[in-house]
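Bump. Still looking for Serine palmitoyltransferase small subunit B structure tokens.
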Amino acid sequence: MDIKHAKDYLYWLYYQYLLITCCYVLEPWEQSMFHTIFITVFAMVVYTAYVFIPIHIHLALEFFSQLLGDQREST
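Sorry for the wait, here they are.
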């Protein structure tokens, strides 16, 4: 994949994003506000998933291991 093709593909993805979110009808300052809010919310969701999902998976595995009778003895 050459550089020009990758650049065209990124432009195409950005254009698809604009079409899906209807941002192409917004004024430039409205677009920048929308993108800022969207990126902020997306970053918060990713951070929350990074922090809390491993904890929940660990607790679920502990619960199901105790439920199935695989209890570990503490030393």
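The two ends are 56 Å apart (CA to CA).

Edit: fixed formatting.
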